[in-house]
Every structure is written in structure tokens, then in C-alpha cells.
Amino acid sequence: VQGESLAKAPPDGYTLSVAGGNVWITPLLQKTPYDPLKDLAPITWAERSPYLLVVHPSLPVKSVKDLIALAKARPGELNFSSTGLGASSHLSGELLRSMAGINIVHIPYSGTGRAIIALVSGEVQLQFSSAASVNPHVKSGKLKPLAVTSAEPSALAPGMPTVSATGLPGYESIGITAVFAPVRTPTAIINRLNQEMVRFLKTPEAKEKFLTVGVEPVGSTPAELTLALEADIGRNAKVIKERGLRLD
Asked: Which residues, in sequence order, are CB contacts of 74 under 8 Å at separation 6+?
């Protein structure tokens, strides 16, 4: 609905959308009346949020490499929770499954809270979640963190290695929040909006505020945002096709 509404909005520079992955991932899961790369004009990549791969403490693993080895030794026995089909927590797990060649079982829950409770209770064995969501349980010892899903180490998970560096080279899965306008918005307006938004996103004040709520400010050109979206769409499209995932 968000992508469709923006695509149909007047291109006057006053109607904008701050959107997350659902706007460009939903069209991969079901038919939509808009194309995210053709009907939306990218302005800037506002923020990103890597996920933390966490496991139940009872799982005898200390790294992603250990986890993959255990999953290969016990095919179909390890479950991972998510907040629903097509959610980032789901697709991050499917990407791990695909790239590592392992058989782990997806168990969807209605909401982040229930998915985390399932992991803490041992109902499932692993999950991909935002650091902010699971950090209290990590600090209390109820969950064990293995790695962060960004390509590089993240300030949101200090000292935590990446999935790519600890068992699965090339793995990357991050949450992207971006700002868009309707596709026919004049270039001069897009450029002015980009200039003002990036100026703010690059300030120390913005960095401090964003990190406090568990995300990293970015600030990019429209072209850089397009490349990031194409990469995210490509990664997820491959997994969605392999698994035959559909919402309709």
C-alpha cells in the first residue's frame, strides 16, 4: 500500500515516503501495482540496521562455522523463528540456509516479542533480530550472540564479528530505510531534498540520535541508493525463487 500510494501521488516534491524493505520485497512475494525501481524516485538512503544472529545458550556452538556444522550434522532438526513470511528475520535465515547448504526449519510468529520469547524458551534454536531487540537477553545470558549480518563490523554490536568472516564468506543481510518521491518528481527537487537530508544525516547529532535507537545513519546519493536496492532485491529474489515463497 505504501509503495502504491506514493507511485500514484502528485510529483510535486511535497509527497514523500520513508520506507523500509517491505516496499521493494513485497513485489517479489506477490503481484503489486507498482515497480519499486521504476515507479519510485530514490532520494537518499537514510539509515541501515544489521541484524544479530543469536542462538539459545543450550546450542553447542560458538561461531557461525560451528552452527553450520551442527546444522549439517542434524538436518531438519534446528528451527529458526521470524516475525512472518517475507520478513527480514525470515529472509536472513533463508539466505543462511541457501548459502550454507543447510536444512533449518522456519517457524513464523506474530511479532518480534513472540519470536524472541520462542527463542529464549528453547522452542526454536536461532533467530536473526535487531541488536536492540535482543541485547537485554544477551546481557542476561538468556541468548548467545554469534555474529552480525552486515558486511563490516557494526557500531550497533561492538566487538561482534560478521557472519561473513566467521563461517559464511559473502553473507550480508541488512535493514534499509530510504526516502522516496513519486517517479516524475523534477530532478531539481530531488537534488535539493537529497542535499538537505544528507547534510543532516552526516552530522554528529544525527549519528548520536540514530545509534541510540539502534540504527546507523547513512546519507547517500540517489544513485547509491539505487545500487543498494538492486543488491538487496537481487539477494532476496534468489532466495525467494529457490524456496518458492509467495504471499498470495
From this structure: none
Write the pLDDT tens digit of every residue in 100-114.
999 999 999 998 999
C-alpha grid cell, residue 79: 528451527
Q: How far apart (Å, rounded) are the C-alpha atoms in residues 213 and 219?
A: 17
- Cell 540517489 identifies what position? 222
Radius of gyration of the chain (CA): 19
Number of neighbouring beta carbons within 10 Å of residue 140: 9
If DSSP codes are grouped into helix, strand and coil, which group holds residue 131?
helix
**Tens digit of each residue's pLDDT (9 = 90 or more) over 3-59:** 899 999 999 999 999 999 999 999 999 999 999 999 999 999 999 999 999 999 999
- CB 213 within 8 Å of CB 131: no
The label of the residue with cell 543498494 reads 228
Distance CA 70, CA 128 (A): 17
pTM of the model: 0.92
Give residue for cell 519510485: 40
Contact 247, 184 (CB under 8 A): no
The amino acid at 236: N
Return the HEC string of 73-126: HCCCCCEEEECCCCCHHHHHHHHHHHHHCCCCEEEECCCHHHHHHHHHCCCCCE
Q: Which helix (H) or strand (E) holds 200?
A: helix 187-201
Decide if 163 contacts 151 (C-beta within 8 A): no
First to last CA, the chain: 15
